[in-house]
Each structure stands twice: as C-alpha cells, then as structure tokens.
Amino acid sequence: MIGSFKYYFNKVFNWYFKPKTLENRLWKLALLLLSTGIGGGLYSAINVTWNYSESQSISAEYSTQDSVTAIITYAAFLFGVLSAFLASYLGFKRERRNPNIFIEHIGLRYPKNQSLTEASKKKTGLGSSLFIDISNYYDQGLLVSNKKALDYSLACFKNTFTNLMRNADTGNVTLHYGGTPSVPIGFVLGHSIGNISKVSLWDFNRDKSEWYALEDVPSDSKTPIINWEDYRKTEEVCLLMGISFEVTRRQVGSLLNGRGIVSVSMPEVKYDSMSSLEKVEGFQQEFREILKKLNTDGVKRVHIFCAAQSSFNFSMGRQVERNHPECIVYEYVNNSGNNTHYPWGVLFNVRGQEPSIIET
C-alpha cells in the first residue's frame, strides 16, 4: 500500500515540476480551476463556527446562493474547462509535429504481460498503433502458412501505414518497431519501410517479460566479426550471420552449392548479443558495405542465413537498396527433413517483382 502511494506521489510530483511548457501550465491551471469549481459546487454552503466563550463565537460562511460567490465558482469551473480544451489542442498539435507510430509485429511469441504500444507510450507519449498479428499462421511453433503470413504482413503494413503517414508530419515522424516475426518476414518488412524516417527499435526481454528500447541499453565492445576467407566472386553468394545463435555450414547444407561464403559471427553468441542501438547502427554501415562490395563484384543474388533478434533483422532489411543484389532470407527449422535446416525463404529486392516465398 505504501509502495503504491509513493509511486503515484512521485508520478504527480514529476509531472508538476517538469519543464514549464505552455501546455503544461494550462493543464495545471485547469486542474486548479476545476478543483475550485467542482469543490464549490459540491457544497452549497459552508459554515465554520468558533466558540471562544459560552456566549460569544465567530462564524464564517461560504454560499453559492450569494451572487458574487456563485459567479466566482462557476467562472472557475468554466475557465478550467476552457484551459483543459486549450491544453488538449496544444497537445494534439505537438503530436502532429512530432508523431509516433508504433508497429507491433507478432509472430511465434505473443507477449501477454505488456504490449509494445503500452511500453513505448510510457517512454514517448501518444501516437498511432499498427498491430500486425501473424500468430494464427503458426502451428506447434512452426510457420506453416508462410505465404499467407507474408502477404498479410505486407498488406497490413502498406494499407494502414500509408494512411497513418498521410495524416502525419512525415519529416518528424518516428516509427517504433518491435515484434517476434520469423527472420525473413522481419527482413522484408524492414525493406518495405526503408530509410525514409526515424526508427526506434524495441525488443522483448523474455526473462523479464517486458519490452525495452535498444537506445536505453549501453553498448559493449563485443561487435560482429566479418570473415571473408571463403569468399569467391560467384554470381550467387551465401551470407551466414550467427548473432543470437550460431549458423553453421552443416545447417545450411546443400544450399551452399559451391557458392562463395561470407560469415558474420559474434565474440559471444547469445540471444540478446545485439541489444544495443549503438551496436546495431554500427553494423548497419558494415552490412551496407558488404552488399556494396558484392554488387561491385557482379554478384546477382545473396542467400542470407541469419539467426538474430527481430530488431536486428528489421534493421538489416532497411539497409537493402535497389542497386544491391537480389536477396533471399531463409527460415530456420530445426527438424527439417530436407538436406538443409532452411526449407524456405523470402525472395525480395527483385526489380518489378513483389517479395515471394521460395521453397528449397
């Protein structure tokens, strides 16, 4: 009980003493005036009497029946309402100037304790939400309807996101992305958005069952290592990226097919090894340089096998540009009966062609 009281007291205290913007001042004025107006209206008359002897006393009276008192009470309430409306209007204009769009992309895991929108709104304020739920296309942990999941994700994004952006100041809009989709679908959604606006990345902490912003996580020196030893100039190249889990040649199997290989690994492989925004943004530049070199070498298609967090997949997808080679990002399946643990992938960045499912 005491802990709850302290929590709400701190919230009110921090709100009251935060920077004095006009909007904030109006809300405080509205709170004061409405409290005065409502308080006055609740009591039609207040009598206070102080007896300081058996025969003598002092009394004070407040009554809304008195015309002057009534005018003060009702005027306070009226101006309180007007102040609240004006503060709301200024807040709406502020959100228009610096809007937030929250994209929650749910796949295999459905975070039940807290939604991304709830977590990000606590940090950034109000905004519009785009909820893309493809969990219905999973069965026993496997994405069985991959084409439907891909088509639904892209259609939902394009239709809803276009409308949200149409009503926003696109120069200042911030996208907040987080989710648990499959690797290839996360890549492709990032590619669909591209680098058109500012993006805030979020991931789900499975231990604490809560969302966190990558910008709030301090960086460390354990950054990705790029290995070109097995690279050869072939028309199609394999890019193996073991970020959260190792990606081995045995897992890729027959899909290597004598192609040149570029490997990306971490000094320490764990599920949150790229949870820092600084590290992700640093590797974005390196990833673009990889694709640029492959394009310069005449590579036509890159086969990407990636084990990483959703935020990483989304970010790398945003780096793929039109002048880069075609890409196929594959989905890992542990019990695949094929000659590879990657039975399907999504082909994208093909000129004149929408992203499509490729079975192996």
**Backbone shape:** elongated
Work out the strand percent. Answer: 15-25%
Portion of residues within helices: 25-40%
- The SSE order reads HHEEHEHEEEHEHEEEEHEHEHEEE
Distance between the termini: 59 Å
Strand order of the largest sheet: 10-12-11-13-14-15-16
Number of strand elements: 16
How does this structure look, described?
By secondary structure, the protein is α/β, with parallel strands linked by helices. It is built from nine helices and 16 strands. Helix 2 (22-42) packs antiparallel against helix 3 (67-97), helix 5 (146-166) packs parallel to helix 6 and helix 6 (183-193) crosses helix 9.
Compact overview of the structure:
This protein is of the alpha/beta class and 360 residues long. It has helices at residues 2-16, 22-42, 67-97, 116-124, 146-166, 183-193, 249-252, 277-296, 310-319; strands at residues 45-51, 57-63, 100-106, 128-133, 138-139, 142-143, 174-179, 198-205, 210-213, 225-227, 236-242, 260-265, 301-307, 326-331, 344-348, 356-359. Helix content is 39%, strand content 24%.
